[in-house]
Amino acid sequence: MIETKAILIGEKPRAVSIGSIKIPDLGPHDVLISSRVVGICRSDVELRDGHLEHILNIDYPIVPGHEWSGQVVEVGKGVSRFSAGDRVVGECLITPLDWFGCNVHGAGSELFTAPEQVLHKLPDAVDDVMGALVEPFTIAFRAIREAGRCDSGDVVAIIGGGMVGQCAAAICRANGAVTVMIEPKELRRDAAKELGADSR
Predict the structure, then answer these.
(1) Which partner for 199 in 53, 116, 170, 189 could form a disulfide, CB atoms 3.0-4.6 Å apart?
(2) What architecture (CATH level 2) is domain 2-126?
(3) Of residues 29, 33, 51, 39, the one with CA closest to residue 139
(4) How buried is residue 14: exposed, middle or buried, by Cβ count under 10 Å (0-12/13-18/19+)?
(5) How far is CA 108 from CA 21, 28, 196, in A?
(6) Rg of the chain on CA atoms, in Å
(7) Residue 179: what pLDDT?
(8) 137 to each of 33, 101, 118, 184, how far by Cα in Å?
(9) Over 2-45, what HEC string results?
(10) Is the backbone of residue 97 left (phi > 0), alpha (psi -120 to 50) or beta?
(11) CB contact at 8 A, 32 and 111
(12) Inter-residue contact 68 to 90 (CB < 8 Å)
């Protein structure tokens, strides 16, 4: 068993602290990972404020962090796709009831574990910061795909310039669509303009 420093969200809303957790010995299909970059998502704020308890069974204190990149430290005996030194990112959904960084300890610690089946190797061309953006980027990508995709013949309006909205703007512009970002905050509008969007 390993002890590691972690961001801990306690049972009372807004009870956030730095503490330590003990990581159990690796199971055959577990991977021990060292955090490189961890983002903050809206659902981390909802977790902090106690707003996820009606949909998830949360055993506090919990370690947040599901937008992340890391490096493999050690692998379980049955792990075949990864080895120490690999740079990885991971999916949020482990099982229908288990969400990484929500009711399962996430990446907001120096070391953490994740099941092999939810991990993906990062290519050398993708740095650690960009790796941590894979999760919100895939949310935007799926939303655009399910809305019917887009191309240079489309005009797309994106309402809200948060992380997923910015990712959606980047995807739409990369596909050649005229992209309009509707966002009240100037800082977010400016970020969208840098991505090629016409902000309102």
Answers:
(1) 189
(2) Alpha-Beta Complex (3.90)
(3) 39
(4) exposed
(5) 11, 23, 32
(6) 18
(7) 95
(8) 22, 17, 16, 22
(9) EEEEEEEECCCCCCEEEEEEEECCCCCCEEEEEEEEECCCHHHH
(10) alpha
(11) yes
(12) yes
Who contacts 14 (Cβ-Cβ below 8 Å, separation ≥6)? 48, 49
pLDDT digits (tens, 9 = 90+) for 121-177: 999 999 999 999 999 999 999 999 999 999 999 999 999 999 999 999 999 999 999
What's the pLDDT tens digit per position in 2-17? 999 999 999 888 899 9
Q: Give dist(CA 187, CA 49) in Å, integer.
A: 25
Residues forming CATH 3.90.180.10 domain(s) in the chain: 2-126
Helix (H) or strand (E) holding 119: strand 119-121
Distance CA 138, CA 109 (A): 23
User: Could you tell me what percentage of the chain is helix, strand and coil, using 3-state DSSP and rounding each to the nearest 5?
Assistant: 25, 35, 40
Rounded Cα–Cα distance for residues 113 and 23 (Å): 8
Domain 133-199 has CATH 3.40.50.720: yes
Give SS3 for 93.
Answer: strand
Q: β-pairing, 178-182 with 155-159?
A: parallel
